[in-house]
Each structure stands twice: as structure tokens, then as C-alpha cells.
Amino acid sequence: MSAAKANNADAAKTIRVRQIRSGIACPVEMRETLRALGLGKMHKISERADTKEVRGMIKKISHLVEVVD
Predict the structure, then answer these.
(1) Res. 26: pLDDT tops 90
(2) DSSP assignment string, 47-69
(3) Hey, what domains does the chain have and what are their CATH numbers?
């Protein structure tokens, strides 16, 4: 039973991010942040660990991405 709880805990520690706008006209730093999040094409969804570093990257390019439930 504890293994099932561990799997649920791991699932709760991830965040799904979808790219909603293109990074073409953005500065290079923003495009690199998109790549670091595993994005690069429109409507692509990437799943990352929910850490403060990832949250900071999302905040930096919040106009290009959205958090998916």
C-alpha cells in the first residue's frame, strides 16, 4: 500500500505546461527558457517537476505558456 502512496506523491509533484504562443518574436533568453521547459512548438504539453526553479521559468514566460490541470 505504501508503494501506491509513493506513486501518488510523485504525481502530485509534477506540473504540466502548454505552450500557447510562439517564441519567434521573443528575445533569445525567452526562447531558451521555452526549450529548457521542453517546449518549442505550439500546443505542446510538457510535464516537469514542480520546483521553484520551474515555477520561476514559467513566470518568466507566462505570456507564452499556461499551466494545465
Answers:
(1) yes
(2) EEE--HHHHHHHHHTTTTEEEE-
(3) 14-68 (3.30.1390.20)
